[in-house]
Design a protein that fits this description.
heterodimer, A: Methylamine Dehydrogenase, Chain H, Thrombin, subunit H, four-stranded antiparallel β-sheet, about 25% helix, rod-shaped, B: alpha+beta, Protein Inhibitor Of Neuronal Nitric Oxide Synthase, Dynein intermediate chain 1, axonemal (chain A), WD repeat (chain A)
């Protein structure tokens, strides 16, 4: 067959051009230029279309031997039939090798089946080299290889003899390849090789917890409904309301919720603050302006700015007030601290006086034979606004040993000073009174309630009384509750000379008595049934002092009963219903509050007005009276004649018993001297006579003993108070058998006994009882003696 | 209602301007910390888009959704009645520009 093949035999179309070999052959023939050959088709060639010509026809080359007979049959005698003889392959396998070459397109598919990692050829060679080197380094290197090798040989024992060597190799190769693959990971021969013999897969499944469903739903957030309209008129109304409400709110917001109303008050009260004073007149103006602006057309823009500013100004002012209020509040809080501070400062300033008050005892008293004593001036209390006023009354507080109330007014009725005040002082602060209560009328007398020391009763020049309740933490007395008598009829029509507290009545309400120049004694209680609801003092007249003189005919013929002008009032310390009234005529009436029309006894005491009257603290029958007729008289209530009379020679303006002794009393004279008498020591002369205030210039009007301390307080007509300390001689306290000072009942009885003894001396000078005996003289005996002696 | 009204008036923090020029809260449930910013945002948006209220609504709603959580509803109009269920502390009903009412609430 010609190599070219028949042109027409359905070959690759084309023709001679496609056969390169033909070309060359032609050229070898010496350049025989072959012209383009035309296809010479044999006449019996099949005619095909172009498309059919271009069709690719596939031709296969097979190794089948065409000459081989395939369907050979042979007679089988057993079967007695013709059997096909099986065809025997004529091929002989000379070499067999499993190839590791995989077409790169099919590599992926192959990888799936081939369990060992595959490496490209070049890399495999490199790895091989590395492996060789590592073998040389480490000893056990060849071992695994050789170890691997025998199993392979053993494994391969049963394999085909022809393929043995190759298979060994083939197995070794994958090993090597595996090793090489392992190489890049680690050079050490520690790793296990993944081959089908060494490598085994073992897998486990851990316990997976079963899945469970859990559903939870929270409370939905709360909802509510809202319905409304939106309209032009609703919008308009809303804006109108807002604009109207705005200024009120502005003011409120500025002043603070709680200070809105108070803000203006503060503006008045806070005296020193300039903004406060200015704030009040301006805010109403500003309000007016605001209203005007509101009425005007609001739609200009510049107005808006102005309103803004005004609001800002108002806010600022309000904040100033607020600031002041805050300051006030802060001050009030620190008021207590400030008070203590003030007292400490006073203490430091007057520390010498304080030491004297506490510790100084005049040592020279021991050496005085006549038992005289001295009084040491301590503090002086003066309030500048009270300078021109007279001290009209002093009242120590029974429960607070350092507190006393002083009333200021006027004694000069020709030139009356119309105003007055009540000051409450404390010994701890001589510079400034603790409480101030200013009264438009002069205060004539004052009394501090014995138990509730915040209650002070004041009697005034015009016949009014007032009961002040002092608040402990506020200086300004406008905050203290004041009850005044409200009735016009049931009151004194003339100056009140004395007020004294009585026992609390059945309801526990405090009540007091007052006596005035109109000769009436009025009992005051808190009257809550007042119309204006505030409550005032209601007074009931309990006594009218009728003079024991025949009724005098008036100018028109009617007869008047003359009244005594009461000057002093003294309540018995034990019998609360008995009291003494001293009159301006010099009489002393002993009355009872139970029955008012009659008195128990009248004492024709003095020729001039009775200035002071006081019951003895111990002896229940003894009282003292002093008068401007230069005398001090000590009385036994049973006796119309005084027990003791002291002619001083100067008008006595006040006297009082000492609270620590039944026989000691003090008096102040018009000259400015203070006299202290102790009847136990010296019945005729004072054991102390000392000038307290400057003669002729200042007149001491009042004297009072401090209930606790050995102190006297003297008030003069310059509004000044002087405290004086009594020296030891003046305050001899009784000592019992052991030498310790007597206390309590024994002391009382001793004092009573002392007095009684003195009285008995007076009555019956012959029968001198043993001084040590404390027995009281027999009543009967006394009477007999008296009757025997006859009344003087 | 009247209580809500008076309460609402106190809430207004703007200065005193002429009628309608400032947003006036009619009824609100919003917490005090976020209320002024929301009111400002709404009034600014409405003023900017006073011609296209639908867009204003959209902007407000999207802003509220982004800032305060999903599902806000916004109505802007001149005359409408309504009854809504709202999530507590998420309601605002205010007037602005003198004639417009804005209702913003969140539910769901």
């Amino acid at each position: 067959m010609p190599p070219k093949g028949p042109k027409g035999a359905g070959g690759g179309g084309g023709g001679g051009k496609r056969r390169g070999k033909g070309r060359r052959d032609d050229d070898e023939y010496g350049g025989y230029a072959r012209k383009e050959q035309q296809l010479s088709k044999p006449p019996d060639q099949e005619k095909l279309t172009e498309t059919q010509m271009k069709q690719d026809v596939q031709r296969y080359l097979v190794t089948l031997d065409p000459t081989v007979v395939r369907d050979r049959v042979r007679w089988d005698f057993n079967e007695r039939a013709y059997l096909i003889v099986p065809y025997q392959d004529e091929t002989i396998t000379l070499f067999h090798m499993d190839s590791k070459l995989v077409h790169k397109d099919h590599a992926e598919e192959f990888k799936k089946t081939y369990p060992y990692p595959m490496v490209p050829r070049k890399q495999a060679k490199q790895l091989d080299k590395q492996l060789q080197e590592s073998y040389k380094k480490t000893e056990p290197a060849p071992a695994p290889v050789t170890a691997a090798a025998p199993p392979t040989t053993e494994a391969q024992a049963s394999v085909d003899a022809e393929g043995e060597g190759e298979e060994k190799k083939s197995d070794a190769k994958p090993e090597e390849e595996e090793e090489e693959k392992e190489e890049p990971k680690e050079v050490t021969r520690q790793t296990k090789f993944l081959n089908q013999f060494d490598y085994s897969d073992r897998s486990t499944q851990t316990y997976n917890n079963p899945l469970r469903e859990h559903v939870c739903q929270t409370q939905p957030p709360p909802r509510s409904n809202y319905k409304d309209y939106c309209n032009a008129w609703i919008i308009y109304d809303a804006y109108e309301n807002d604009v109207e409400n705005r200024p009120k709110q502005g003011k409120q917001h500025g002043g603070g919720a709680e200070l809105g109303a108070i803000g203006e008050e503060l503006g008045e009260q806070v005296a020193g603050a300039p903004a406060g004073e200015d704030g009040n007149p301006q805010t109403p103006e500003k309000e007016k302006e605001k209203k005007e602006k509101k009425e005007a057309v609001r739609k200009e823009r510049d107005k808006e700015g102005k309103i803004h500013e005004k609001e800002r100004v108002r806010m600022r002012k309000a904040s100033v007030l607020e600031g002041q209020a805050a300051q006030e509040a802060a001050l009030n809080k620190s008021a207590e601290g400030l008070k203590i501070l003030e007292r400490l400062v006073m203490q430091n300033v007057h520390h010498e006086v304080l030491f004297d008050f506490k510790y100084y005892e005049d040592a020279s008293d021991e050496f005085r034979e006549t038992g005289e004593g001295t009084i040491l001036p301590l503090w002086k209390f003066a309030y500048d606004r009270a300078k021109r006023l007279h001290v009209t009354g002093i009242s120590w507080s029974q429960s607070e040993p350092d507190m006393f109330a002083v009333s200021y007014g006027s004694f000069s009725f020709t030139h009356p000073i119309t105003d007055g005040m009540v000051l409450v002082w404390s010994l701890r602060n001589p510079a400034f009174p603790e409480q101030i209560w200013v009264s438009p009328r002069g205060c004539m007398c004052v009394a501090v309630h014995p138990e509730a020391n915040c209650l002070v009763a004041v009697g005034m020049y015009d016949g009014n009384v007032a009961m002040i309740q002092l608040k402990p933490d506020e200086d300004n007395a406008t905050s203290s509750v004041v009850l005044k008598n409200v009735h016009v009829i049931q009151k004194h029509r003339s100056p009140i000379w004395s007020v004294k507290w009585g026992e609390d009545d059945m309801d526990g309400d405090p009540n007091f008595y007052s006596c005035g120049l109109d000769g009436r004694i009025i009992h005051w209680t808190i009257d809550t049934s007042d119309s204006n609801g505030v409550g005032g003092l209601g007074g009931t007249e309990i006594c009218i002092l009728h003079l024991p003189v025949a009724p005098v005919t008036g100018p028109d013929g009617t007869s008047y009963k003359l009244f005594g002008c009461a000057r002093v009032l003294a309540f018995h310390p034990k019998e609360k219903t008995t009291f003494l009234v001293g009159t301006a005529e010099g009489n002393i009436f002993r009355c009872s509050s139970l029955y008012g029309s009659r008195f128990q006894q009248i004492y024709n005491a003095h020729f001039l007005p009775v200035a002071a009257l006081e019951w003895n603290y111990y002896h229940k029958d003894v009282f003292i009276s002093c008068s401007e007729d230069w005398t001090i008289k000590i009385w036994d209530k049973k006796d119309p004649e005084p027990m003791y009379v002291f002619e001083i020679g100067v008008a006595i303006l006040d006297c009082c018993w000492a609270p620590y002794s039944s026989t000691v009393f003090a008096a102040v004279t018009e000259e400015g001297k203070t006299l202290v008498y102790d009847l136990n020591v010296n019945k005729e002369k004072p054991i102390c006579c000392q000038q307290i205030v400057t003669k002729k210039k200042v007149k001491p009007h009042r004297i009072q003993f401090n209930p606790y301390y050995p102190i006297l307080c003297v008030g003069d007509d310059r509004g000044q108070l002087t405290t004086l300390k009594l020296s030891p001689n003046l305050r001899i306290l009784p000592k019992d058998s052991r030498g310790a000072p007597m206390e309590g009942d024994s002391k009382i009885t001793f004092e009573i006994g002392k007095m009684a003894k003195l009285l008995s001396l007076v009555r019956d000078p012959e029968s001198i009882t043993n001084p040590k005996s404390l027995a009281r003289p027999d009543e009967k005996q006394v009477k007999i003696v008296l009757s025997a002696m006859g009344k003087k | 209602m009247a209580d809500a009204e008076t309460e609402a008036k106190k809430d207004d923090g703007e200065g005193e301007k002429k009628f309608g020029q400032y947003p006036l809260i009619r009824m609100t449930d919003l917490p005090n910390e976020t209320k002024p910013e929301i009111v400002e945002m709404i009034s600014a948006t409405v003023e900017r888009n006073s011609m296209d209220l639908q867009n204003a609504c959209k902007l407000i709603k999207e802003h509220m959704d982004k800032t305060y959580g999903s599902s806000w509803n916004v109505i802007i109009g001149e005359a409408f009645g309504f009854e809504v269920s709202y999530l507590k502390r998420h309601l605002l009903y205010m007037f602005t520009l003198g004639t417009l009412g804005v209702l913003v609430w969140k539910c769901g």
